[in-house]
Amino acid sequence: MSNKIIIDAHLVEGFMEAFLHADLDQPKPTPQFHRDLWNLFCSPEQNVAVAAPRGHAKSTAGTHAFSLASLLFGSDDFALLVSATEALAAGHLANLTRILTDNHDLRTEFGVRVLRANETQLVAEAGGREFCVVGKGAEQAVRGLLWHNKRPSLIVVDDLENDEAVMSKERREKLRDWFNNALLPCGADNLRVRFLGTILHMDSLLERLLTDPDNGWVGRRFRAHKSFDDFGEILWPEKFTEARLRRERQRYISAGNPSGYSQEYLSHPVAEADAYFRKSDFRAMTAADHEEPKTMYAAIDFSIGQSDKGDPTAIVVGGVSPDGLLHIVEVIAKRLDPLESIEEMFRLQELYNIDFWVVEDENIAKTIGPFLEAEMRKRGRYLSIERIRPHKDKQARATSIQARMRAGGVHFDCDAEWWFSFYEEMINFPRGKNDDRVDALAWLGLYLNKLSPSLTRRELDELEWEEEMEESGALDEGRNPITGY
Asked: CA nearest 392: which of 418, 414, 412, 362?
């Protein structure tokens, strides 16, 4: 056989069925989505990312079958296998070593001989040529990685992210920096990267690779079935029947974790039934709501700067009506420096006549305070600032506004330009890419009990009438100037 063959999906499927299928535990017919995965992995695209559900043999098809076919048929001589930890990568390497060592048919057909194998490296010979696989954990050193003076031509990433780390913004950013600044540049000029995993967060690396149209990656998001409540379009019906999927979903629901099912089987880490903010929590403002008098308030969550990594400054403007409802009329999220943030505050103050601004005490003390004080003196206009010291836990911080929304006490201007992006951030909290607008809305929720309801329209009309009468002197006609009677 030729020393070097360019593999395609048909070849990988044949290789899988001929040499690996019998090694599987209770093997099932090859599903179409494995063929779709192999088509992506064997494509000429440099960077490919795939999200696939739990239990659907994504590692068997994508990491083991594809990688072995690439190495044995000679498409690649040096591959790097990367997982969340070195132990996970070592497990994949051990499985590849076991196959190459124990599979008699494969050893005979390809002339395989394992030359060296340990927890971090596998070196083998096939048909007179050597190949190497190195295993690494996330954020381990990969700079200058060489084998026989070669850099890796194939990087296979399998479950790079883990549940604990992905919940920290700082750790997500650190992993992205390592991935882009260390891992990708360590490859050869003809490097291909194949990323396979589960989406654990809406700001996870895998989610970004799948959704950013300008990052040079192609890929696909596979789901076990259509949606949480729709069991149509089952991905692998021979293995996962509707009855089995329903039982599995119920197991998660009974454990109080429907989002776990959505994450593991539907490639989306937030389930509607388990969402912190649910679709039913969002009530649209009516025409009457817009006309109703309101006492206006605003909350601001300041950004740390204008860099690409900096959070946006988020501002939420709401008015409390006479019946105690909070109406959210404007939401802003922009990357602004301190002076720009202050300019935006004064613009909104002029537009809405805001009674007071809710601001985190630390923001005032450490970032915006001196600039704001100077600008208020310069303009001769002083904003009412309510400083708060919130709970550090973001979900605990948002409890008040969550309860108010669930009780129907918050209405939103759903026709505004800002609505869609605001809603997306809210519905995906706390696993969404951003949470700054959630934070700003939470400030209002924390102080909602302190907010004074507005006068009714009738009360405002009576007050206006009395003021007009006082100005005209009509209210004084017939009264004794001393007794007032």
From this structure: 362
